[in-house]
Amino acid sequence: MKIYRIVRWVVLAALMAAVFLALRKPEALSQPQPDSDRAAHKQSFDAKLQQLEDARSQGESGTAIRLTADEVSSALATGQSAPPASPAAGAARPAAATDQLPSVQQTQITFERDVVRGQFLTQLSGKDVYVSVAGHLGSKDGYVTFAPTEFKIGDLNVPVWLVNDALQKKLAEQRDQLKLPDFVGDVHVDNGELVIVEK
Predict the structure, then answer these.
(1) pLDDT at 191 over 80
(2) What's the pLDDT at 121?
(3) Is the distance from CB of 116 to CB of 122 less than 8 angstroms?
(4) Residue 85, SS3?
(5) Quick check: pTM over 0.85?
(6) Whole-angstrom Cα distance, residue 141 to residue 195?
(7) Structural domain of residue 39, as residue ranges?
(8) Are 84 and 184 in contact (CB under 8 A)?
(9) CA distances from 92 to 56, 89, 100 (A)
């Protein structure tokens, strides 16, 4: 009986530690942008998308634009649609009415080498919960793909193999939102920037 009590207390302590870590606020991915910088980054975002449109209308192919995390974050913050490759665009939209996702109240996006990182603030049962995800963006058959490499709830690391199937299922349910425009051939993160390549 003594071993049973010890195991019970160890399990209870582990569960309490997991809940504490899951509700803890993680370190921010980046510092918030001042409004003046956000406006400049949004303007740069729009100008680069216009370059891609102009190349398409002139019949050019293979044109690529490179977007920084600040530009993508500014586009998300102003409520405009982000480039099709942004995972936050899909995460911020609700699914079917019967399977509503919690609303995302705050989004941070960063790019590191070939990895995109996103941190999302939502509320569950009245508590602020931060979900952080990292992975590789790509494209296949005209749709954005996302292969996670890291997943956290608060400060609690969750093994990717535990959440990957559910994440891929959610992405499949929102497949229409992940469709690339007809003139976009590829999206990926390279050297800390989001690269969108025209067909």
Answers:
(1) yes
(2) 84
(3) no
(4) coil
(5) no
(6) 17
(7) 2-198
(8) yes
(9) 29, 5, 11
The angle subtended at Cα 153 by Cα 149 and Cα 156, nearest 5°, is 85
* Cα(83)–Cα(89) distance, integer angstroms: 8
Sign of CA dihedral 63, 69, 71, 74: positive
Domain count, the chain: 1
Tokens of 115: 């990895």
Helix axes 69-77, 35-57, angle to 10 degrees: 100
Which range is least confidently modeled, 30-34, 160-164, 166-170? 30-34
* Secondary structure (DSSP) of 94-162: ---GGGPPPPEEEEEEEEETTEEEEEEEEEETTEEEEEEEEEEEEEETTEEEEEEEEEEETTEE--HHH
pLDDT of residue 23: 66
Mean pLDDT within 116-141: 86
Among all chains, which residue has been given the structure tokens 């049962």?
125
Cβ within 8 Å of residue 175, ≥6 positions away: 143
Question: 56-74, pLDDT tens digit by residue?
Answer: 888 888 888 899 998 888 8
Percentage of the residues of the chain whose pLDDT score is greater than 70: 81
Tokens matching residue 22: 């899951």
Q: Compute φ and ψ for 28, nearest 5 degrees.
A: -65, 145
Residues in the chain: 199
Given this model, what pLDDT does residue 86 score? 42
